[in-house]
Here is the input.
Amino acid sequence: MIVSLAGGVGAARFLEGLVRVVPQRELTVIGNVGDDMEIYGLHVSPDLDIVTYTLSGVVDTSKGWGIRNDTFSFLSTLRRFGYETWFNIGDQDLATHTFRTEQLRKGRSLSRVTATIAKRFGLRIRLLPATNDNFQTYVTCNGIQRHFQEYMVKLQTKPRVQRVSFHGAKSAKPAHDVIRSIRQAHGTIICPSNPIVSIGAILNVPRIRNALRNTASRIVAVSPIVRGKTIKGPADKLMSALGIEPTAVGVAEVYRDFLDVLILDRQDRRLAKTVEGLGIKAVVANTIMATLEDKIRLARTAVSEFS
Here is the structure.
């Protein structure tokens, strides 16, 4: 079994390649729920959904989120009632959130609901939320705490971030089978996701980071940073704001206590020796996933470290 820790868009794109290298039934994906929030009366799980939509082939690739050819009549009507509609939910996407919210209100766990959604979209992977408990990522900008989605979507990552915090981290427990999956994995892959608020949120669920430190499996990460910038998302901004070098070396330092191998882009090959100086094997490859072939090749590079 291969275990993968995943955020949103970058992870989903990598996983598109991985499911063509590893049979879906042999893949467990542990997803970030720090981006989860309640909006318009619905429980939304952005990262779990982007993985589901991408791997099932329905994602709107032009936007990088949501369902292809979706309409937005729901939001248009909400605006009539004075709602602030900065968080876009398409009409088909609405069905997913409505189902999730209804099931959670009936007392079902997020793990169980997520498994049902993945199955209904035809997936055979095991998609696990990092925790079933209330756990949300907040950033502090100009002394004001904001949910990460507000910073990311509404404010377009413009304010300078002073602090990142994870509400619920002290009391949260790993979802059922998360720790066991890590312990029993043949290999573990950290997807090219934001190390601060995507993978970082997963690692801040108690016991998960410790499980990675103690697993017998080899752990491979793909750097989401290329030449000091992210392909998508604010990882570089957040790393800089927190005093972490926004490079593949900075990524290696964040994961240093458990990481065996870091795959960094060939444009950053000069950083390989510095990474290896941290006690982490550096593998240089093309990490920019412009085509499906790029995704498959990168996934094969990661999986080859488990041979």
